[in-house]
Design brief:
Elements (H helix, E strand, L loop, with lengths): L1 H17 L3 E6 L4 E6 L3 E7 L5 E7 L2 E5 L24 H9 L2 E9 L4 H17 L2 E4 L6 E8 L1 H9 L2
Length: 163
């Protein structure tokens, strides 16, 4: 009986993890960039005083920092391994993967620095503003992108499996 309870609990936990939202958030004005499994884990890019960039990984109550641009102090061991065959993803499968993401928020405030190009982009941005997201062209040297994209592991797996 206890074994059945443990098995059912594990199955429910795994099924529940399939529907946990994955959030990708970018805000260039506030320098906020992160990917999160809501309520479980969060990886964010942050500026650092000593290094240019650091990654903060937060899982439940555990927090760890990575420095991806730091040179490794370990010597690299050279081994003769046969090259692994890389499976190429078809364009159709890549498109299905991209379409599985849902855009919650998309805002673009842009200035190209060229008045003529800004004037040519103005009608395009007005059309996009009505149908896609919030797009704005300005002539004041302001550039900002705010993007909030979400998905679930279930939809990712489904996009790979379905033809």
């Amino acid at each position: 009986m206890v074994l059945w309870i443990i098995i059912v609990t594990l199955v429910l936990l795994i099924v529940g993890l399939l529907f946990v939202p994955i959030q990708i958030y970018v805000d260039t004005a506030d320098a906020t960039y992160f990917v999160s499994l809501q309520g479980l884990a969060k990886a964010s890019l942050e500026p650092d005083n000593k290094e240019i960039l650091r990654i903060r990984l937060k899982v439940f109550f555990y927090e760890h920092f990575f420095y991806p641009l730091r040179k490794s102090t370990k010597p690299k061991e050279i081994e003769d391994k046969p090259a692994k065959k890389r499976r190429k993803m078809s364009a159709r499968k890549m498109l299905r993967l991209v379409r599985s993401f849902k855009v919650q928020k998309l805002r673009l405030d842009m200035d190209t620095g060229d008045y003529v190009v800004n004037a040519k982009l103005y009608p395009v941005f007005m059309l996009l503003d009505r149908h896609v997201g919030r797009f704005h062209i300005n002539f004041q040297d302001r550039n900002r992108l705010v993007m909030d994209v979400r998905n679930t592991p279930y939809r990712l797996i489904k996009s790979f499996i379905n033809n």
